[in-house]
Amino acid sequence: MKKFIKILCVIMSVAMVVSLASCGSSSDDDTLTMATNANFPPYEYKEGENFKGIDVEIATAIAEKLGKKLEIADVEFGSIIGGVQSGKYDMGMAGMTVTDERKKSVNFSTTYATGIQSVIVKSGSKVKSVDDISTMVKEGGKIGVQQDTTGDIYASDTEENGGYGENNVIRYKNGADAVQALVSDKVGCVIIDNEPAKSFVAANKGLEILQTEFTVEDYAIAIAKDNDDLLKDINKALDELKKDGTIDKIVDKYIPSK
Questions:
Q1: Are 149 and 96 in contact (CB under 8 A)?
Q2: Which of the given ranges, 8-17, 54-63, 114-123, has the highest pLDDT on average?
Q3: Could you state, in order of their start, the residue ranges of all structural domains in the chain?
Q4: CATH of region 115-216
Q5: Rounded to 5°, angle at Cα 208 from 221 and 217
Q6: 84 or 162, greater pLDDT
Q7: pLDDT in tens, 157-199
Q8: Phi, psi values for residue 115, rounded to 5°
Q9: Residue 139 DSSP class
């Protein structure tokens, strides 16, 4: 009897280990979960309850390549990296720039798009070029940014590193709030990605984008460091989508070539 009980305990222990291993795996094998911040047109935004944008369509195409159904979680931009890192989301895709700091927490796919950080000002502003931002700051003006974006990172950095210092930057939860702060003269300019900048300027009279770029950067997909298989699968899918012209078609749909 004792021998039977001992064998039974061993079987139950093995079963428990297998069960725990299954629970520790990533999300449903049939689902690809994408974390984004749907307030960043034309890369991601919502029309009613539907998600739209470049990232949304590329992610959908990737999911189809992998034989999975795409699920999108709309969260604050600053929580995307942590969510991917912890395994809550399979990937983060939100017009996200590859930076050395972010690479400490997650891995990145190959680049799928190039972004430009631009500066929005009011028409008639003394800020005529990027070089004028320093003068504006010295005169007490503030810079508006969306928190945790590269615009925030670059602008908040020290002067020695090309930034303006945290004390001269006001962070907002999303780009729309930063632009409204500019409209109401709470900040003297807004640093944000060029394509969303175009949308914001089109929606708000009296604003314009400076002709000089603040910086140019690469967009990629954030994936957990221990999820090498998914990284390989996504890179393979991206390579195929680039070669067959799918990504170019998606980008051209939202950002028509001149």
A1: no
A2: 54-63
A3: 30-112+220-254, 115-216
A4: 3.40.190.10
A5: 25
A6: 84
A7: 998 888 999 999 999 999 999 999 999 999 999 999 998 999 9
A8: -115, 155
A9: T
The H or E element spanning position 145 is strand 143-146
What is the helix, strand, coil percentage profile of the chain, to 5? Answer: 45, 25, 35
Query: Which percentage of the chain shows pLDDT scores above 90?
Result: 75
Q: Do domains 30-112+220-254 and 115-216 have the same CATH topology?
A: yes
Cβ atoms of 101 and 153 closer than 8 Å: yes
User: Using alpha carbons only, how large is the chain's radius of gyration in Å?
Assistant: 22
Strands 106-108 and 222-224, how do they pair? antiparallel
Buried b (16+ CB within 10 A) or exposed e, 26-35: beeeeebbbb
Specify the residue for token string 């991917």: 84
Distance, CA of 16 to CA of 237 (rounded, Å): 36
Indicate the DSSP class of residue 130.
T
Residue the block writes with tokens 């170019």: 248
Q: What is the pLDDT of residues 86-112, one digit of tens each?
A: 999 999 999 999 989 999 999 999 999
CATH 2.40.50.140 for domain 30-112+220-254: no
Under 8 Å between Cβ of 219 and 76: no
- Phi and psi at residue 192, to the nearest 5°: -160, 165
> Which residues on neighbouring strands pair with residue 74, listed in sequence order?
36
Q: Which residues contact 224 (CB under 8 A, 6 or more apart)?
A: 84, 85, 87, 106, 107, 230
Give the pair of three-digit tokens for residue 107: 């891995």
Going by the DSSP 8-state scheme, the letter that residue 96 receives in this structure is P
